[in-house]
Amino acid sequence: MNAVIDDVRSEALFASYVQRSQEPTPETIRTAVLTMVDQLGESGCAEIVAQEYGEHPDCAIGRMNWARDAVRLAFAG
Predict the structure, then answer these.
(1) Alpha carbon 27 to its chain's center
(2) Given its phi and psi angles, is residue 76 left (phi above 0), alpha (psi -120 to 50 degrees) or beta?
(3) Distance from C-alpha of 44 to C-alpha of 14, rounded to nearest angstrom
(4) What's the distance, Cα to Cα, between the start and end of the chain in Å?
(5) pLDDT at residue 2 in the model
(6) Distance of alpha carbon 28 from alpha carbon 61, whole angstroms
(7) Alpha carbon separation from 5 to 8, 22, 42, 58, 60 (Å, rounded)
(8) Is 68:6 a contact under the CB 8 Å cutoff?
(9) Which branch of life, at top level (predicted)?
(10) Chain segment 30-76, per-residue pLDDT in tens
(11) What are phi and psi of 17, to 5 degrees?
């Protein structure tokens, strides 16, 4: 997968309403990513990520790790 696309998708999932505790399906993850990019654009998603890292760095690290893993699985193949 292209690293830039992977980063954008991860930031979009991070910025979305989807929570790890919901155990989202790959379809839910793909939908959330597309919705957030449509609503906020790539830079808007990145802004939310930056804000969360500034305000809640302890939580943001875990959420981003989850988002990266979830995106890799949801968009694989």
Answers:
(1) 14
(2) beta
(3) 12
(4) 9
(5) 86
(6) 22
(7) 5, 24, 10, 25, 20
(8) yes
(9) Bacteria
(10) 999 999 999 999 999 999 999 999 999 999 999 999 999 999 999 99
(11) -80, -15
pTM comes to 0.94
Q: How many secondary structure helices (H) and strands (E) does the chain include?
A: 3, 0
Token digits for 71?
């995106």
Give the DSSP H/E element, type plus range, for residue 30.
helix 26-55
CB 35 within 8 A of CB 16: yes
Location of structure tokens 């929570």? 19
Tell me which DSSP letter residue 20 carries: G
Angle, helices 3-15/57-74, rounded to nearest 10 degrees: 120
The tokens of 46 are what?
Answer: 């990145």
